[in-house]
């Protein structure tokens, strides 16, 4: 979502000095924890951040002078409202009960808690409060639910099967920085594998925020911090004009958000003042630019059915159909920032509608994180090696699974023994579907309780669900066959659901029935 930054939504794992005040821009004092820590991570990071309102477009909103002289960290017990003061350390290993210093304006530091001290919380959620100076960030009497941050101390890794990589393809950093939102410091993304359990991340800051030097710094950061088991890729969330109205409207958002991958250089959009409301390029101009000047690039439409305060935003209503497939290869059907599941469901409905029209498109699931919720939405890619070229090739060709919980994928075999994977096409008369899934047993995922297999005949108006028996397993393999199919063009896709309403959605496989 466009304005989902560290300060705007109380649901995000970032908590503020006071309630949001649009007249002053973003509040100054925040703290944040990862939404989940991998089992091998033996320290719990706590990000403390001071920021003056207004960001790099400070002329839009007055800055306030902030001051912090000390920082304390507490464990919070929500059942009893009890606080327990904690000792913590910095990267150099210096131990603190209270961190003292005279800090003003923009500043951040990451402190660490020893995980072994919280053995009673393993596999559960740990709640933390931070105290700046002598005042809690938000008064518990006003809004108790937003006075702490929480982190799941996972006792199992993310679901994983051989030949697949898991990552997050929509993340914001400190270079998303304007009068209404910003992201965490770049350095936290060095720890994407240790903290979040991911194999890759794609940093996608807003096009109207990025400057040329920022793009160079991001590229350098990715090169210096990618490893054999962890890849950092650089993309961009490109804002494009999606309305004929020439005047910026504050009752509607006339912009469409496009996730660009494999870009040769930064795509610049937006005007000086009304950048987020009135970009200076429309979506078709951006598509033409990608084709003409960014060879090998491709894009997914971000949160295609996002809504905020009753305003529908991205409906693809003016986009030329010729761009669906090139350079647009898919939709972000699962966005971790959309806490109303209805929005993700509507994104899947739009995706299904386009498939039935004959568009060959793929799925992504991402966090869209402006905080440390990295990995709350994820995209699995089929890749032989953890290299940028392999990851981009999988995203471009549809070897993807979008998820906020379990993992599942599908293969199809015809009567001749020929096989097709996600994103591929298979011809034949009779087909056998092989499904495989995996879910860790942390409390937020639980077992896969149902699998839904959807068959769509291209050119018709709806999908048909193929009946499957109920399953209650954390892992498994299942095989089923098609009924007799009339000659024509079809697609097949699968969804894997848990009892906690978490799900995984596969990209389709296309079938040509003779």
What would your notes on this structure say?
It is a single chain. It is built from 5 helices and 35 strands. The chain has helices at residues 192-196, 212-225, 283-293, 341-356, 388-397, and strands at residues 14-16, 29-32, 36-37, 43-50, 68-77, 82-85, 88-89, 95-96, 98-103, 107-114, 125-132, 135-136, 149-153, 164-171, 200-203, 231-234, 236-241, 255-261, 298-301, 307-308, 311-312, 328-335, 362-366, 378-382, 400-403, 407-414, 419-420, 425-428, 431-438, 448-457, 463-466, 475-481, 488-498, 503-506, 509-513. Strands 14, 15, 16, 24, 25, 28, 30, 31, 33, 34 and 35 form an 11-stranded mixed β-sheet that branches. β30 (448-457) and β31 form a beta hairpin. It is globular. Residues 1-26, 54-65, 138-146, 248-252 and 308-313 have low confidence and may be disordered.
Walk me through the topology:
Layout (H helix, E strand, L loop, with lengths): L13 E3 L12 E4 L3 E2 L5 E8 L17 E10 L4 E4 L2 E2 L5 E2 L1 E6 L3 E8 L10 E8 L2 E2 L12 E5 L10 E8 L20 H5 L3 E4 L8 H14 L5 E4 L1 E6 L13 E7 L21 H11 L4 E4 L5 E2 L2 E2 L15 E8 L5 H16 L5 E5 L11 E5 L5 H10 L2 E4 L3 E8 L4 E2 L4 E4 L2 E8 L9 E10 L5 E4 L8 E7 L6 E11 L4 E4 L2 E5 L1
Parallel strand pairs: 3-13, 14-15, 15-16, 19-22, 22-23, 28-35
Antiparallel strand pairs: 1-2, 2-4, 4-10, 5-6, 5-9, 5-11, 7-8, 11-12, 11-13, 14-24, 17-18, 18-19, 20-21, 24-25, 25-34, 26-27, 26-29, 29-32, 30-31, 30-33, 33-34, 33-35
